[in-house]
Amino acid sequence: MRLEIQHFTQYQYSENVILNPHFLFLIPQQRSYFQIEKGQIKCDPEPIAIHERIDMMGNAHYQTWFQEETDHLSIDADYIIELKPFNPFGFLFTEFITYPFSFFQYSPEKHIFLKAFLETDTHEAFQRYVHRLIKASGDMVAFLFSLTESIHAQWGHIIREEQSLWSPDFTFDQKKGSCRDLSWMLVHMLRNVGLASRFVSGYAFNPELTEGHELHAWVEVFLPGAGWVGLDPSLGLFSDNHYIPLAAGYSPELVAPVQGSFGGTALTDLKTEVWIKLL
Q: Domain 108-240 carries which CATH code?
């Protein structure tokens, strides 16, 4: 399967501004199940420099900076990607996992690395909801599938144009949310029972999906031996070869596709569009 992905971002400012350095998390991250055949990024105004860098979480991205004042910033990313089969259940645990569990425990050496991915506020409603599914499931994989599917079934998926992210407890109470809201809620549900989790931003393709899934958010949970395993609460699925990550991190603001600021007092209007076409 070959896809063409076009990702257009435009900031329109109410007056001329000076652009500070920007970070473009618009590079599909390396995975064995897809290959980038063609890729290019164009910016208007044209930057004086653009360089590929790696952030503290291993995400490849572009750092770019500008010289002239401008009343806009447009970024156009275009990729052709070949997808290959991928089995999201193709793993074994390399450590004994106690199941059922009340609070998951990692080995000391793993816990040091995963500490940021475990940060959360204690939420008793989350814990009650998750513990009920732990008790009803036969093993860790069945539990994760049941939790992901239950969010898909019991929380409505909505399209929200606002850039703000709902808090996990607000999404829980509203029984609905965007893919970002549902994913951030799932992250904190998992962290509330000791499972290290991170927020993922990227592209999702399925010709059967409704509009709004092209630029997508999902979750990855860390399991000993399996590593980071993708879960999509918006669709109730383990993420497979239809998911193309752009960045993953312990907090959503760290993985936004475009990150940067400007000097001045201008108002900003943001427009983002993503098209995915089967070739």
A: 3.10.620.30
266 DSSP 8-state letter: -
Intra-chain end-to-end CA distance of the chain, in Å: 8
Q: Where are the domains of the chain?
A: 2-84+257-278, 108-240
Do 2-84+257-278 and 108-240 agree at the fold level? no
Q: Which residues contact 40 (CB under 8 A, 6 or more apart)?
A: 77, 78
CA-CA distances (angstroms) from residue 272 to 24, 74, 244, 251? Answer: 14, 10, 18, 21
Q: Environment class of residue 120 by beta-carbon count within 10 Å: exposed (0-12), middle (13-18) or buried (19+)?
A: middle
Region of poorest pLDDT, from 44-48, 194-198, 210-214, 226-230 = 210-214
Q: Looking at the predicted structure, is the pLDDT value of residue 208 above 90?
A: no
Residues 6+ apart with CB under 8 A from 142: none
Architecture of domain 2-84+257-278: Sandwich (2.60)
The pTM (predicted TM-score) of the whole model is 0.95
Q: Is the pLDDT of residue 211 over 80?
A: no
Cβ–Cβ < 8 Å for 230, 243: yes
What mean pLDDT value characterizes the chain?
95
What whole-number distance in Å separates Cα of residue 74 and Cα of residue 45? 7
Q: What is the DSSP string of 37-92?
A: EEEEEEEESPPSEEEEEE-TTS-EEEEEE--S-EEEEEEEEEEEEEE----TT---
CB–CB of 213/158 below 8 Å?
Answer: no
- Outline where DSSP puts E strands in the chain: 2-19, 22-24, 34-44, 49-54, 60-65, 70-83, 156-157, 176-177, 197-204, 215-223, 227-232, 237-238, 243-249, 258-259, 262-263, 268-278
